[in-house]
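Sharing a chain and its predicted structure for anyone who wants a worked example. Both blocks are below, sequence first, tokens second.
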Amino acid sequence: MTDNNPSGPKENSAGGDQPTAKEHNITAAINAFEAKYEAAQADNSKNDSDVLLWTKRAAKGVFVYTALTVVIACASIYGTILTRKSLSDVQRAFITVTQLEIQPRIIGNQLLGWTINPIVENSGTTAPRNLFYVFGFGNPSKTAQKLRDPIDFPSLRDIERHKNMKAMVMGPQSKISNFTTLNGFTVSSLLGKDLEASTGEFVWGALVYGDVFAPEAKHITEFCFIMDRTTLVENKTVPYERCDHHNCTDDDCK
């Protein structure tokens, strides 16, 4: 007699290769977790990139801001320096000698010579500080009438150290010319016709001084004139001209 009901093990063996519902749920859960993890990692990477990008931008912004601050500070300092320099240039003492004062020395009707003094002018609106000067007259080398500069003019180093110089004072926007009444030139030294107009006789000088902004004596003024011959004996007719050198101020003297 034939058995129409197959044995149970065959059916179980045929269906045993298929995953159970429980196994399927675990796999799905793992896949879902992996997907979420990868998505989270992608989001984190994107966030990290955004943070890095904005951090770089912020750093650049801070750098630019700092650079601008430094530039503005430097411009402000430079502007202050320029303002102070402009104020100093306008108000500081500024001494020059551009002409001579000539006085005849006459006894009775006889002209003995001329007393000649430099006219020292301070065109500044403030008085000089620590003012020193040295003046020279004539020519120690009487045979060198063709000289265009005095041989005994002091060196720049001696002027800067105000060596052998005298102290003096003067006010703002003032002139001084009464330095001496003893120096001068005799009639024989300047009067008469000559092929050479220059007599080789000099009036020269140097001054060194400070100002209200920088009292240390550092400003320099040099002047030098050559006395020319004259055929007249009146006060205003004694001619003179500038030497080839030693007419300068400050850096132009160096």
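Comments welcome. The CA atoms of residues 70 and 76 lie 10 Å apart.
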